[in-house]
């Protein structure tokens, strides 16, 4: 089953917000529907976003009266993963040739990502064994499997390839706060593949490394800058620091479509801030028995303006700080902390001074 595809004139996606509870397919027939799906992370992960951007332009070419406006909507739906704008622009370049040419380009991008996943799985698995020896014990972050691509995956593709070779030690899925792409999605994919795994809270990663329980960190990227800085899901940088301190490899697996030579360094990348609600709202932590995760956090927490201090039973008298949160969805791992980047075409050993 494909995470995203073109089916009978529409874009079909697996709704990742419904997992792991329900496996649901959404059929999207307009660019507006697709943009909403991208923004609420029903479809997510850099390579899948590249395909979404391109297929969105194919929708626009067929149905929109103003395809150029639709392309702008698509390429700016989320700012950080370079694949989204890259996919949309590559398909848009065929607009003058007509709708069928645009669709052909979008399907070519889809097929290239499928091929790239297969190549990364082999190359990534080989490198992990080379760096760590037989049966490596791995920690991964966010979701980089089939759900983040079309089929296969990037970093998780390499983990699954080791499993297929019966060469995997253990795997820890870092839960990935606040939207739990690791705990919900990576764990779901590992389970379906028959891989035994453990989920850990994000903050446990560096400690597990310090305690000698992890041989390497392997994760994906939303953008790889010209100097080798890696932009990936928030929490990746902490794992990189932990790996550096523990003296273990930090390996990034991403397709060439994620390499962005036009962006010099991580400092030049717009990091998406997804707003307070994802961090503050109640109902997200069942273990708390309905208690809000922060004072005043309720179902609508974070939706009020930053100056609104009226939320909560005794707001004001308790002297609560303004109910707000900072929620960067990604971080920057400086290239000095990256051992190697594996793409579908090459292995770049940053630890040996090789350049992107
Ligand atoms: O916010 P998300 O879920 O789209 O973030 C995804 C990630 O950060 C992934 O690690 C990255 O896109 C690589 S996916 C192969």
Automatic annotation (TrEMBL):
UniProt entry tagged with the keyword Isomerase: yes
GO BP terms: L-methionine salvage from methylthioadenosine
SUPFAM superfamilies: NagB/RpiA/CoA transferase-like
InterPro entries: IF-2B-related, IF-M1Pi, IF_2B-like_C, Initiation_fac_2B_a/b/d, M1Pi_N, NagB/RpiA_transferase-like
Protein name, as recorded: S-methyl-5-thioribose-1-phosphate isomerase
Alphabetically ordered keywords of this record: Isomerase
Highest taxon of source: Bacteria
Isomerase is among the record's keywords: yes
Region (Disordered) location: 285-320
Molecular function in Gene Ontology: S-methyl-5-thioribose-1-phosphate isomerase activity
Family the entry assigns: Belongs to the eIF-2B alpha/beta/delta subunits family.
Source organism (scientific name): Plantactinospora soyae
